[in-house]
Amino acid sequence: MPTLTRWFIKSAMLSLLAAFLLAVAMHSSLADRMPWLRAVWPTYLHLLVVGWLTQLIFGVAFWLFPKHPGASVRGSERLGWTSFVLLNLGLLLRLWSEPRALLGGDAAGLLVISAVAQLLAGWAFVANTWPRIRAR
Question: How many domains does the chain have?
Answer without folding.
Answer: 1
